[in-house]
Amino acid sequence: MEIPLLGFVIPTWLVLLATSLFLIYKYNTRNFNVLKDLGLDGPKPYPFIGTFYRSIQSGIGKGPQENMLRYGKVYAEYSGNVPVMVVGDPDMLKQIMVKEFGFFTNRRKFGPATKPLDKMMTILDDDEWRNLRNATTPAFSGGKLRKATKDINECAANLMNNLGTVADVDATFDVKKYCGSFSADVIARIAYGVDMDSQNDPDHPFIKHMKSSLDFSIRKKPFFAIAMFCPGLLPLASKLGFSFFEKETLDYFTNLVHGTIKMRKNADAAAPERQDFLQVMMEAKEMKSAKEGLGEADDNRQRKPLTDAEVLSNCIIFFFAAYGTIGDAMSMILYSLADNPEVQEKVFDEINSVLGDSKECSYDQVKQLSYLSMVVDESLRRYPPALMVDRLCSGDVVIKGYKFFKDLVVTIPVYALHMDPEIWPEPEKFIPERFTPDKKTEMNPYNYMPFGQGPRHCIAMRMALVELKVALVHVIRNLRIPNFTLSSKLTIQPSSSSGRH
Ligand code: HEM
């Protein structure tokens, strides 16, 4: 059949195709005025990809940095066709992350959650999240961390020995792999009581699975590209079997966790009771410790027992969270020290004066390393492992004249905040003195948030900081780092040639 139009005869299939394309286009761009109507400016969105092309052009962290300079501290982005309000204004962030937390408790979802990761703390909502966070917070108390410092020291000594050994035979090597393994060994020991030693075995299945999980190239992770460009297609992609993680990887971690739980249950009843993360989770499942150690997010609601799925999901996610973030943070601190030899020397001197002859760094000594602390803070400012965090709005609320509505995604551009020249003069420069104790007291915490902010900030923040500092104590005390390229290849001079002992 053919349709006459303006003197031309057009085949029906062509008319149907054009109409379908037009309707798809209209459907896909239907939200493009939502934020404009609320008075927000931003880069021009395109059908299907929204404004994500800006991040591809400039880098995931740098896109918002450039946009903030151009459109101001509150502006509009589109993730595919999903409206996203980017907020870099510290007063508004205080409202969103703390004062109006009730409206911004949850995070954005990237597609349907799949087993065994469907109950991870990072993606749970509202009361389910609160219950889990309250149950697990006691596992990260100061007392537990103090006890764990011995294990952290042993893993850090192992890291230093491995870096020293590899530096003797190989001028350049991938430092992130070693730092990530260090962190994985720490979490395996202090959270699950397992002596994993992935550092000494580069072919350890843990490392293989972790590396493949954290490879976000489009070839390896088409699901990631779909999540960024066309989030609307995620349910379909999920049904077609696409996922962030390979099945083999999830099976590996499931077996690892189940094996550890089984071992723990079969353990000698006379053995001293463990106090680690796994024990806290297992007790929360039995409701044994419901009364003690109420978490910071606790609002006295009825505590519910954790389910098997919650225990499994969260045991797995802790490995992922620890490997990627600590590996990134530690590599970038070592890079900063190599790039600033005078800072490295100062850190070296401070470590020696605080530790004296002691081989290990105690929890109290960690607190005395004030210059090292400034170095870590500055490196996390300059190179935050999490470039942005987000919140999902659950209802209508007005903050500083801006209207937020249900299901609006709010992005907090951490990297852009940390690189704002109004707050951090010469932001590209590595200057630990930005974080002297006095300056830290005066600082607006909503301009600096490598671990997020408010009740949903990183649950392991204190542990991560102790881990990083203890690892640095062992490495810097014994090895000099003269060279480091940003392709994450580090050159280290071992103690024999550097004169460090
Ligand atoms: C340098 C290391 C680390 C950095 C920079 C980091 C950063 C972050 C950030 C930015 C968030 C989001 C906070 C927010 O939304 O306000 C987060 C959440 C989280 N992190 Fe970390 N993290 C680190 C290490 C770790 C480690 C070692 C673990 C586990 C042992 C961990 C477990 C988690 C969990 C479970 C959450 C979700 C908290 C919730 O939703 O309540 N992180 N982290």
Automatic annotation (TrEMBL):
Keyword Chaperone: no
SUPFAM superfamilies: Cytochrome P450
Binding residues for heme: C458
GO molecular function: heme binding; iron ion binding; oxidoreductase activity, acting on paired donors, with incorporation or reduction of molecular oxygen; steroid hydroxylase activity
Membrane topology field: Peripheral membrane protein
GO CC terms in record: endoplasmic reticulum membrane
Cofactor names: heme
Domain of life of the organism encoding this protein: Eukaryota
Positions of transmembrane segments: 6-25, 223-245, 311-337
Locations listed in the record: Endoplasmic reticulum membrane; Microsome membrane
Keyword Transmembrane listed: yes
Any Pfam family matching the protein: p450
Keyword terms: Endoplasmic reticulum, Heme, Iron, Membrane, Metal-binding, Microsome, Monooxygenase, Oxidoreductase, Transmembrane, Transmembrane helix
PANTHER family: CYTOCHROME P450 FAMILY 3, FATTY-ACID PEROXYGENASE
Family of the protein in this entry: Belongs to the cytochrome P450 family.
Function: Cytochromes P450 are a group of heme-thiolate monooxygenases. They oxidize a variety of structurally unrelated compounds, including steroids, fatty acids, and xenobiotics.
Protein name in UniProt: Cytochrome P450
Organism (species): Capitella teleta (Polychaete worm)
Lineage: Eukaryota, Metazoa, Spiralia, Lophotrochozoa, Annelida
